[in-house]
Every structure is written in structure tokens, then in C-alpha cells.
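User: Hand in any protein.

Assistant:
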Amino acid sequence: MADYSSWDKTLKATLVKEVEEANGVLYDVGGNVGSFTDLILEKLPDVEVYIFEPIKDYYNHIVERFQNKPNVKAFNCALIESNREVNISKSSENPGWNTISEIYSYGQQELVIGRTLSELVTTEKIPFPQVIKVDIEQSEHMFIEGCKELFKQHVPNKIIMEIGIPPGHILWEKEKNMIEYLFDTGYKRYDYENITGTYDGIFSK
């Protein structure tokens, strides 16, 4: 399943520290099979985690994996810009590569529920996050669009997000607008326009 080994150094330097200092709540957006949350719980076993995973089989695995962890709750939905159904393209070769089909269509299709984070937090009455991890295969700009009402009330201390759309891509303007919006929200600016590949963007206040 998804390999989060490359995140380990980032975890030690930033995310664990942020969650620990805030006595905080973590949102794991794009939970896959729960490997990232498991890594967090090894270091911070009592932290409150909310996992969001649209693929039904992976969601079921997460529920089973953390069934004895009352501090972990999972939601079976894609977090996007509006409440609607969307198709997810699933890779048969890389279980970590599943993306919204209107961005990139391939492999097997699965129809899933899409929700905005702003609506979900209000409806489900879950606590605001201190830290959000986002790894959703090029749909991060859709996720952030669905966060904007929430961010009017609460801006997380840190967002650690895989940035998967580089300059020159057909969706680059949407990605660029997302990054600029986050800077305008209060996160520290960094030089992103000269980065040509996928990278882990760290948005901190």
C-alpha cells in the first residue's frame, strides 16, 4: 500500500512537534490504508486523529485496523470543493495512486461521495484540526477550495501537503491560486514556482 517512509524526516521535524505542542487534533486527508496515522500513533499514541479515505476497501481496512483506538475516527468520502458524487480512478499497480477521474482518468473507476471539509466539520461536529496532512494525488486544490468556509473560523497551525501539479501543467493556475490563497491566509511564503516535480509543501504560520 502507500509508502510513507519519505515522510519520516518531515514527521520528526514538524508534524509530531506541532501536534504534541498543541495537544492537538490531526486530520489525515487521503488516509489510504492508515499507514501514516499508524506512524503518528507510534510516537503519539493518544493523539486524536480523523482519517478521510474515499475508496471503500481502504476505508474498511482503516476501520478494522484502528477498531481498538477510540481516538481514531474514519470517514468514507473524498474531500473536494463541493458536496457531490465523483469517480475515483484506481491503479492496479500502485494502491497509493488513486485520483479523481476528472483530473486524470485511468484503470478501474469507483463512484464515491464527495464532501467539503467545511460542511463535514460542521455537520459531524468534529473538533478543529491543529495539523492537516494531505496526500490526495493532484486534487489538493479541490480540497482547499472546500476548506475556505472552515478557514474563516479556524486556520490550522500547519498543513503538510503533497503538491502534485507542477508549473506548465494544465491545472497549474488552480494549484498556484491555491498556494497563494494559503499564503494570504497567514502561512509563511516560500519560493514554489521554480519547483518542477512533486514535493511535500509545508505550510506553517
Notes: Strands lie at 25-29, 48-52, 72-75, 78-79, 84-90, 98-100, 108-115, 131-134, 158-163, 199-204.
